[in-house]
Structures are given as C-alpha cells and as structure tokens.
Amino acid sequence: MTVAEGLAAAFGTRTGRVTTFDDHVGAGTVTADDVDESWSFHCTRIADGSRTIAVGTWVMFDVVPGPTGLEAVSLRRRT
Q1: Does the N terminus or the C terminus of the chain have fewer Cβ atoms within 10 A?
Q2: CB 28 within 8 A of CB 51
Q3: CA separation for the pair 68, 29 (Å, rounded)
Q4: At 7, which helix (H) or strand (E)?
Q5: Number of domains present in the structure of the chain
Q6: How far apart are CA 46 and CA 56, in angstroms?
Q7: CB contact set of 21 (below 8 Å; sequence gap of 6+)
Q8: Which of 8, 19, 4 is nearest to 58 (CA)?
Q9: Is the pLDDT of residue 6 over 60?
Q10: Is 74 strand, coil or helix?
Q11: How far is the C-alpha of 52 from the C-alpha of 72, rounded, in Å?
C-alpha cells in the first residue's frame, strides 16, 4: 500500500456539496457534510467523465494527497 492509498483509506468516502466550480478553469471545491472542511478538485476527478458539475450538487467523494495538498477525487453524484 502506498502512502497515498493509506491516507485515502484513513479519510474514507465522504459526502458533501459542490460549493464552487469554474467551467473555464475546470476546477472547483467540495465541502463535506460532517465537518466544516473543503477540498479542491479538478474536472478530471469527476467520476462520470462529464468534466462539469453544477454548484450545489450533492456528491460522494474521496480525499487523497495531491500535488498542492489534500484534494477531492472520484466525485460521484449522490442519489
């Protein structure tokens, strides 16, 4: 197991809302339901491959170390 995988396992899957998203830049932030924390994400981290997501969308996501700190990955729309 890599360090990144170990940290991802420690954080586990979270739920929250997309709080910002800039289509032009292809980046946004997601805020967790259970803690007052936000993480950045890039559009390539949206699991369905759409590369766009509306602000306010409820999502499930994982938190992993990225090049600039912790980031949200594998964003999946919550049903």
Answers
A1: C
A2: no
A3: 14
A4: helix 3-11
A5: 1
A6: 15
A7: 27, 28, 29, 52, 53, 54, 55
A8: 19
A9: no
A10: strand
A11: 15
Taking alpha carbons only, the member of 10, 25, 12 closest to residue 73 is 12
Chain segment 15-66, per-residue pLDDT in tens? 999 999 999 999 999 999 988 899 999 999 999 999 999 999 999 999 998 8
Give this prediction's pTM: 0.83
Q: Which residue has the tokens 């992993």?
A: 64
| Tokens matching residue 49 | 């491959």
The token pair that represents 69 in the structure block: 């700190």
What residue numbers bound the domain in which 17 lies?
A: 3-77
User: Do residues 52 and 42 make contact, with C-beta atoms less than 8 angstroms apart?
Assistant: no
Q: Is 15 helix (H, G, I), strand (E, B) or coil?
A: strand
Assess contact for 45 and 75: CB atoms under 8 A. Answer: yes
Identify the CATH number of the domain in which residue 9 sits. 2.40.50.140
